[in-house]
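pinging the channel bc i need a second pair of eyes. not urgent but kinda urgent?? the chain im working w is below, pasted from the shared doc
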Amino acid sequence: MKLKPGCKNEYRERHSKLWPEVQQLLKENGISDYSIYYDEETESLFAIEKIEDQTKLKKLGSNPIIQKWWDYLADIMDVNPDNSPVITKLEMVFHLD
């Protein structure tokens, strides 16, 4: 994901006040241990999350609460026409347990 220039502090602030209904929805759909990292040089965001079920994750985007959260962040991020964040999937090239 990518932030618009100069929006790091606003992004951090909004996430520090993550809506309880978003937090509950993520947990109910098996998402845990969720962290987002920021690369200042590229304005890129990198998210790591544990996901119990990929099918539940795919359905989250149609949830009105998630859509409202996307709308709330659309002014500070690169987004698709539906205001979902533009995401670049990365290929795992190494993992160690």
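so The mean pLDDT is 95. and The two ends are 26 Å apart (CA to CA). — does that match what u expected or am i reading it wrong
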